Each structure stands twice: as structure tokens, then as C-alpha cells.
Amino acid sequence: MRKYIKNKITEILSTIVEANNILTDMIINDDTDNSNILLTDIQSTIIEIGNEIEKSEKDCQQLIGNMEEFCELLYKCSIATMKKDRLHLCHAITENFNIIREQIQALPVVYDLVFLPYKASMWDSFESIWLAAKDNPNCNCHVMPIPYYDKKPDGSFGEIHYEGDLFPEYVPITDYRKYDLEQNHPDVIFIHNPYDQYNYATSVHPDFYSRELKKHTDLLVYIPYFVCEENTKEELLVNMGVLTADKVIVESEKVKEQYIGAFINSILENQKINVNNKIASNSEYINNIRKMAESKFVALGSPKYDKVISSKKEDFTIPKEWADLIGSRKVVLYNTSISAFLNNKDRYLKKIRSVFEHFKNRKDVVLWWRPHPLMKATVDAMAPELSREYVSVVSEYRKENFGIYDDTADLHRAIAYSDAYYGDGGSLLAMYRVTGKPVMLQNINII
Fold first, then answer.
1. Contacts of 299 (CB under 8 A, 6+ apart)
2. CB atoms within 10 A of CB 161
3. pLDDT at 276 over 60
């Protein structure tokens, strides 16, 4: 039985316990009219509970049979005319109900888990958790890709996207239009987009902002869509998803401490408490926040690393034209990131062109260019004056056909097929290091 449903039924059963006590008093006081009303209400409630149990439980005949007997006792009590008979039946009702209550409490709990990816290329931040959960008989898993918008330079919504058809074939997809979060109230919701309305490049649909999701689950879990090697940027550590989530799963104890520090500073700043103030009450307040943060942030590792470690070249296929282009040559994965672009802009595009020139006539290696999945949307939103130039860079690269252009959702295919890494730092670099293959950071200032 769903944990959420079982909890609701348990609450209702507690009210029936109270109702049984009240019923006895009514019968003793010869309050026949109200006692009969109460008997009818109890019967209606038990029938509703029975219907709910039959929907979710296959092997519940004995329990349903006991509930039918319980309803029969309620009916006999309502038509009995002698007080002693009514009290005797009331005693039987209580005993029968206690048996029903124990049987319901013994029903196995099944947890309803909903994964809400928005970019198919970021599915790897969920996959290993989903793989473990889907094989657990106590879990019902729903992978429900959600729509997202590009943002215009003025912050308004632009084109809407839905990538439900881009996920691996082995991942069953639940249509977000057919699963009502409010009605189903899943036990756990997993998210990897923490920005709500505060991302400049994209926004998930407002119905799926973290504060909305929080209303419809017992546990909101944020798993970062990135991994990092060094200090994590502040804007990644403190955002709406991090603050709203009940649990944040992070990759290491070191990263956990970064999150805790940023979380404490954010709350202190909002509360306008001076960290340097040595007043005991402030110190106690900070300690309480840390205790809360210690529970909130959990260092369980990153599913993204799990995916890198488990992926092999044989697991993937590539288009024939890519295979022909590679031939017997080595493959260099070229990664261009959003942060590096935003910090350099027009110079960054010149750097990309210079890299292409370097690889264009190489006979020993082939370039596999994989720009960040949100690069185009970011350029359009945050550097619209360079949109045409960026489109031109991409178009020329694809037209000249000396390298591979990869804008697919399958990041791990690129990692598995490549022999070395070149490009910007960040999450992909951290993941690539796990493979043990060579890496080299690009220097934007060298054209």
C-alpha cells in the first residue's frame, strides 16, 4: 500500500477509535438517534477505506472479509432495540475493529517515487538511483520529464520544449499531463533543476517550481545536475531548490561542507545576524542551523559518477557518418561551457574558431565537439548580440564536416568513445577524470 495512503487511513482509523468510545457512551445514555447516525458514519468510512485497500492490494480477501463483518455488526447495532444487546454488539464492534486495525498496520508499505528531469542530457544525475529503486518491490517509480521554456533577454518565456522522447529506450516515461501530483501525492519527488524562476537562460514550467512541488510530497529531494572538483560557485550552492528541498544529495563530504557553509550564511544574511557577533544566543542559533543543515545535506555520492564508471563503449552506437569520420583516428572530446563563455563572450567565440582551425587538417585525431546543452539558449538570453555569430560558428563547423557535432542527450556516449578531453573546466571535466583518460584545459587567452 502507498505510504501516503496508509498514513491517511491510519489517521482515519484513530478517529474511529474515538467514535467507538463515543458510541458506547451514547448507548449507555439511550441516545439512540445520534448513536445510529454515528454508526452510519462509521460504516461509510469503513466502506471507503475498504474500496481504497482493494484498489492497491491484491491479496486482501481476509481483511475485506473482516471489514464486511464489521459493517454487519454496525448494522445489527443500529436495529437492535435492547440496551444490553446494543452494548454487547458495541463490544464486538470494538474487538472486530482492533483486528482490522492490526491487519491494516501490517500491510507492506510501497513508496511512490517521481523523478522530474527536464533535460534528457541530465538524466544521468538520476539514473543509478532510479535503477536501484525500480527493482525494489517496495517502490513504484515514475520518470516524468517536464516541459521547460527558453527565456528571452527581458526574462519572459520564449519557446517551450519537452524532451520526453529523447530518453533511453529502457526508461519508461510517464506523461506529465496524465499524472496529477496533487491527487497522487508521491512520497518522494526528485528534481535536478533548482532554479525555479531565477535562471536567466531557461525555466521549467512554473507548476514544477520547487515551492509548488513541496506542497505535493512528503519528501522533496534535490540532486545536483553537476559535479565539481574544487570549490563550488556560490550560485550553485544557494538557490530556491536547495533551500526548499528536504534533502540534498551531494557527491562528497567536502562538497557537503561547502553546501552547509553557504546554507548557514544565506540564512544568517536573511535574518540579518552578524556572524562575528559573539553573543551566546547567536552562537546557539548558528549551531541549530548547522544541525538542520547536517540533516538536510547528505553525502551519498553522485549518480553522474556512477554512470561514467558503468558505461562502456560497447554500450553505445554512433551514426555511420561519425564512424567513417573517426576511422582509426583518436578522438578528442571538446567541451565548451556556459560559464567560460559568459566570462569571455566574443573572445570565447574566437577561441572556438581557433580550435577548429587547429584540428581541421589533422590526420591522427578527430574533434568531437559537445557544447553545453543550454549554450544556444544562454547566448540568446544573456548575449543576444552574439547569437548570430554563435549560430555561424556552429553552422560552419557542421558544414565543413571535419569533426563531430554532438548536441544529443547522450553525454556518456561521447565520454566512452573519446580518447582524451580538451576544453573548459567544470562538471564534465570532473566526470571525465574518473575514466583515467588524458585531460587538458583550454586557455581562452591563447588564440
1. 250, 251, 252, 253, 255, 256
2. 14
3. no
